[in-house]
Write a sequence for this structure.
């Protein structure tokens, strides 16, 4: 506390000068741009390669050629593959696929629904148990039971492995500063490196099949488990640790009796985030033959069948919402570990028997094994989605086209011209200066290093084009984040209605809405921006809403009593007090926008996104795609470090 | 007490449900065991992500299962990964290959894990297309020499002051940037990035009567919905595309062919013979693709319908 108060006047003094300096740097950039633009822009045409790209191609070929002879493959990768394949196949046999000589899986729909509801009740509460049962029945009604169970099996396998490996690593990172520093860049890399880049190499290492799909999923899904476990351990109050140490506890006792129990809630949040991340990989994993809902989405898009793709996408959203609410409820329960009611124990046993009976019936009887096809709403959902899409394409085109042109000509094109047509040294100088002004010396050093590596990838100009789109998308995300976030933060009813829509925006596979977006905005950079905003805005909105709600009620009451209008209350009290949330929202929004760069490449964004997609599709462009993936990671790390260094929460770091 | 009541209700429900029963699993005869006698075994068929390929694969899979008793495992994979599957033994056949000389060199000539298994009979055509309404209104647009006259109409927010040439699926090699430069066209290549985006753009251009010119190819199911018109480029002659930077001629006509793994070919089983003998026309494929894409039939149903209507062709594949 003392540190913060001491620092306050100094930083306030600095803050007066800083915006002026930033503006001055930007102005100087524009002025310099006029005489020097078009020089040293380091452009590279889509079909051209640099020596680095060729070298990466050769590495890839060498790995492929040696696959069958190298002992590393025979004894290491093949063993891992076999183990993971066995796990996934076991789960599929259990709930999804005909198995053990039977025409149906071991557990039919009734058993799965009963089990899910029972588990949700035991770890959560009645409300989520009902939601879970309802959600799973809906999957059956949509006509997607088998596909959903395939997806669930793969997701469960990926999540289980992620937790098995991630939680111990997270504990280690929580206890050791050195390991924490070591693993953070690795986690950044795992979360921002586009999946398309490593899909092909993965199938080379682990062959085509469930193992590769599971590993592709867990590379993306494991980081939250590690980060949040480490965060949980680190947030345990030092006094609690000191108390146990003074009592002479061993390291083992300290970990299992104090640190883990006290950080349980954060770890459950990590589990939740891991599940969400795993579900967001469903469609991409389908590109390497992962079974389940992703395949339905991808197949439907080959014929531009938006309705069918939407139905399957909706099933993914339903799975995500159910799993999210159940784990969140489980996390809340962990927090309130009061003495439970005396009735609970017999009830647990009895409902357990009931669930077991349902499982037995779904094993034995056909009606409980296969979801009855008398009630189906999947067709109606598809037709509804089709109707809405066609209507929107026919009637909204004039408006959407105008919006696209406005944003493109007024904002995107000038920004892109500034970034791509400036000589590289000018952009680099401006970026390092801005980083120094906003984030300090360390941010400037990181920025300089990232810029140097960006030039090394040979994709400087593409990186600048992507950066321009990223900046515009992040601005739009923040605009939405502030407007909707403040509204939701101030009004519980709005929150309750908007939140499920945000959940859908986050978990609905982007592939589903690409067709209508291309129809409305054509294959352009703006379409890519809109897709990124749909995915990234929900996070920003939720964080801002959370921040606004976190402001003490007394402060708001005091301001109201002093006669502030609503506008004054928002701009003078609520937004400034939620400043830390705004920074966090901008940071997360940015990372989410970057994770959509590749999807943008599929709808006309060109630049790095297209390079990655093309690298995945054409073997001679593989190396370039890999370099483009690295460039996206570098952009992410650079922007993240600048934002983090500037965020107020950082002033109270360090031990 | 509340708990006893709930418990009683639960037990009663459970008992009632177990008692009422119904048809038991396994009581009816299990399907698909009839053809188990044939010596075909498992046949791993790669399915690349476009409808034409799916049509071909569906017909081959249907015949292999029904007439040869094979267990067909279809694997949904991109081209590159399918080829990789030859090396790892996970893929037996690719049944519609578009050129891919680099992959042929790598897997057939160098690693020797794959062999060519002849043409599918389909001809692949790549080129620049415009929506039919444009060709009707301005017939001379179909000659590349007149393209500059129309460049202004094709301007978009992406192409600056030039006309936009929409390139598509990154899976195919494109010479378009070189073509634009060497034919001195006032156009800029914009990368749509996926077949989905390309088809959507053409569909929207035809229904809104907006100008669009872009990279497309046949056989393609979408041409049955909107018959795009091909713009003629300087004729292709052998070797005119040897130097990628100096290309100034049309794309070659691709003889779409089948590639199988060496192991699969050496085993010389019935499934291999079927793949080797398989041959049909673009029209045949378009029919099956239409069943899948427009009539929304499942791939298996579409294949069944076509096979039943064309017994002679199927018999010829099985004879050899």
């Amino acid at each position: 506390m003392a540190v913060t108060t001491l620092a306050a006047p100094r930083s306030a003094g600095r803050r007066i000068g800083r915006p002026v300096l930033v503006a001055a740097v930007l102005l100087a950039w524009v002025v310099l741009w006029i005489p020097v633009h078009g020089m040293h822009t380091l452009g590279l045409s889509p079909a051209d390669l640099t020596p680095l790209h060729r070298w990466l191609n050769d590495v890839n070929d060498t790995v492929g050629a040696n696959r069958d002879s190298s002992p590393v493959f025979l004894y290491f990768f093949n063993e891992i593959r076999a183990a993971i394949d066995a796990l996934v196949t076991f789960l599929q046999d259990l709930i999804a696929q005909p198995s053990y000589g039977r025409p149906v899986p071991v557990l039919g729909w009734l058993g799965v629904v009963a089990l899910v509801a029972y588990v949700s009740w035991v770890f959560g509460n009645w409300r989520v148990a009902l939601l879970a049962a309802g959600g799973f029945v809906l999957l059956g009604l949509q006509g997607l039971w088998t596909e959903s169970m395939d997806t669930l099996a793969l997701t469960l396998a990926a999540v289980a492995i992620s937790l098995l490996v991630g939680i111990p690593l997270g504990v280690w990172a929580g206890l050791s500063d050195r390991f924490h520093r070591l693993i953070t860049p690795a986690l950044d890399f795992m979360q921002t490196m586009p999946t398309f880049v490593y899909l092909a190499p993965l199938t080379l290492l682990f062959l085509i099949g469930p193992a590769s799909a599971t590993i592709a999923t867990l590379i993306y899904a494991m980081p939250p488990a590690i980060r949040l476990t480490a965060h949980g351990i680190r947030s345990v109050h030092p006094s609690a640790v000191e108390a146990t140490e003074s009592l002479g506890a061993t390291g083992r006792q300290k970990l299992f009796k104090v640190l883990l129990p006290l950080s349980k809630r954060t770890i459950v949040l990590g589990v939740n985030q891991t599940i969400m991340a795993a579900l967001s990989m469903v469609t991409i994993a389908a590109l390497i033959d992962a079974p389940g809902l992703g395949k339905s989405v991808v197949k439907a898009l080959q014929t531009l069948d938006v309705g069918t793709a939407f139905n399957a996408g909706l099933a993914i959203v339903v799975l995500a919402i159910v799993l999210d609410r159940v784990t969140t409820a489980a996390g809340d329960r962990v927090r309130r570990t009061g003495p439970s009611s005396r009735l609970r124990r017999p009830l647990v046993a009895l409902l357990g028997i009931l669930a077991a009976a349902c499982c037995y019936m779904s094993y034995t009887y056909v009606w409980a094994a296969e979801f009855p096809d008398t009630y189906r709403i999947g067709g109606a959902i598809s037709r509804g989605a089709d109707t809405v899409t066609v209507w929107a394409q026919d009637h909204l085109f004039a408006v959407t086209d105008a919006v696209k042109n406005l944003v493109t000509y007024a904002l995107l094109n000038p920004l892109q011209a500034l970034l791509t047509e400036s000589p590289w040294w000018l952009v680099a100088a401006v970026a390092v200066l801005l980083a120094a002004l906003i984030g300090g010396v360390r941010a400037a050093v990181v920025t300089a290093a990232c810029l140097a590596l960006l030039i090394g990838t040979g994709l400087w100009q593409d990186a600048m084009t992507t950066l321009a789109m990223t900046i515009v998308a992040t601005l739009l995300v923040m605009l939405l984040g502030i407007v909707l976030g403040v509204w939701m933060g101030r009004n519980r009813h709005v929150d309750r209605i908007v939140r499920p829509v945000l959940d859908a925006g986050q978990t609905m596979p982007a592939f589903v809405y690409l067709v209508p977006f291309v129809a409305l905005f054509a294959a352009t950079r703006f379409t890519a921006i809109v897709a990124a905003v749909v995915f990234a805005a929900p996070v920003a909105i939720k964080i801002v809403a959370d921040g606004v709600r976190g402001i003490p009620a007394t402060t708001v009451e005091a301001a109201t009593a002093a006669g502030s209008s609503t506008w004054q209350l928002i701009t003078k009290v609520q937004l400034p007090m939620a400043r830390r949330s705004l920074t966090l929202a901008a940071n997360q929004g940015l990372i989410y926008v970057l994770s959509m760069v590749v999807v943008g490449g599929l709808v006309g964004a060109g630049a790095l996104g297209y390079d990655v997609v093309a690298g995945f599709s054409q073997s001679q462009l593989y190396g370039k795609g890999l370099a483009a993936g690295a460039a996206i990671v570098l952009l992410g790390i650079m922007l993240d470090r600048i934002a983090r260094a500037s965020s107020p929460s950082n002033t109270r770091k360090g031990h | 007490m509340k708990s006893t009541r709930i418990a009683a209700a639960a037990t009663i429900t459970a008992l009632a449900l177990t008692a009422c029963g119904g048809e038991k699993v396994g009581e009816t005869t299990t399907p698909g065991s009839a053809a188990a006698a044939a010596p075909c075994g498992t046949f791993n068929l790669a399915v690349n992500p476009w409808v034409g390929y799916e049509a071909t694969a569906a017909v081959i899979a249907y015949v292999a299962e029904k007439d040869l008793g094979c267990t067909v495992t279809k694997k949904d994979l991109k081209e590159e990964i399918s080829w990789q599957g030859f090396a790892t033994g996970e893929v037996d056949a690719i049944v519609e290959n578009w050129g891919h000389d680099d992959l042929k060199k790598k897997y057939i000539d160098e690693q020797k894990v794959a062999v060519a298994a002849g043409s599918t009979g389909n001809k692949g055509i790549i080129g620049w297309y415009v929506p039919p309404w444009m060709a009707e209104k301005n017939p001379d647009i179909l000659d590349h020499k007149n393209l500059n006259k129309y460049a202004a109409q094709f301007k978009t927010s992406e192409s600056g002051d030039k006309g936009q040439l929409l390139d598509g699926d990154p899976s195919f090699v494109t010479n378009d940037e070189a073509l634009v430069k060497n034919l001195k066209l006032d156009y800029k290549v914009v990368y749509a990035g996926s077949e989905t985006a390309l088809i959507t753009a053409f569909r929207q251009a035809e229904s809104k009567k907006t100008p669009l010119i872009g990279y497309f190819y046949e056989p393609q199911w979408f041409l049955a919905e909107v018959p795009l018109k091909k713009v003629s480029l300087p004729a292709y002659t052998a070797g005119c595309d040897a130097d990628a930077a100096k290309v100034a001629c049309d794309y070659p006509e691709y003889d779409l062919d089948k590639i199988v793994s060496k192991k699969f070919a050496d085993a010389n089983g019935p499934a291999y013979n079927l793949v080797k003998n398989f041959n049909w026309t673009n029209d045949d494929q378009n029919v099956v693709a239409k069943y899948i894409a427009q009539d929304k039939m499942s791939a298996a149903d579409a294949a069944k319908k076509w096979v039943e209507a064309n017994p002679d062709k199927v018999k010829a594949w099985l004879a050899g």
Notes: The first helix of chain B runs from residue 2 to 20. The beta strands of chain B are 42-47, 71-76, 93-97, 114-130, 163-167, 187-191, 213-218, 229-231, 254-261. The CA atoms of residues 192 and 289 of chain B lie 23 Å apart.
